[in-house]
Amino acid sequence: MTTVERYRSVSSTLFDQAQVELQAGDLVQASEKFWGAAAQALKATAQQHRWQHDSHAHFYQIVRNLVNETGDKELVDLFNAANLLHINFYEHWLEPDEIQRLAEQVSQLLNRLEVINRS
Question: What is the pTM of this model?
């Protein structure tokens, strides 16, 4: 398994685990796993492009690069949704319906990254 494939696999696993955590009412763990799914998918994309991906600053740069490459400015909002879930891991203030809405945006981000990675 290549590094890119491993990042994609971990991303998928974390997203599935996050859904289970959300249904079980563990909002903190769900939030962090949704973030983790996004982070791993971004790492896969960065690895494929040979971009750095070992810090939050790099994640923002990856998203900027992708917006410049694709013209898809909504990627910023989708990434910010994932980042808000990461913040919720520490702050614990999002409601279940908000987490669900943000999780849907993370799903959109993962789908768009998958399409970008194929092209």
Answer: 0.96
